[in-house]
Amino acid sequence: MRKSRFTKAQIIGIIKEQEAGMPTAKVCRRHGLSTATFYKLKAKYGGMEVSEAARLKALEDVAGNGRAAPGRRCRLPPVATRVGHWISCPTASAPRGRSESSP
pTM of the full predicted structure? Predict the structure, then answer.
């Protein structure tokens, strides 16, 4: 994933500029953002303080940013897709060299 150009503290500062009365177009031009990006960031960080953003970062790190930790990809029990073919997760692919349609 691409690293952000701005820190969370900077993003919150940009949002506060706009909330203080500066027109959105001027804020975006000043910081080199598109208005779509600005509103996306405002939806995520609007109304936050810097300390809350740090807490959000800690929660995202614990959650793994949507990625499973190694060895914990699937919490479901093994499933048999057909006799003799066990997989550890229903979304796993078939072993290499074997197709799903072969008996």
Answer: 0.54
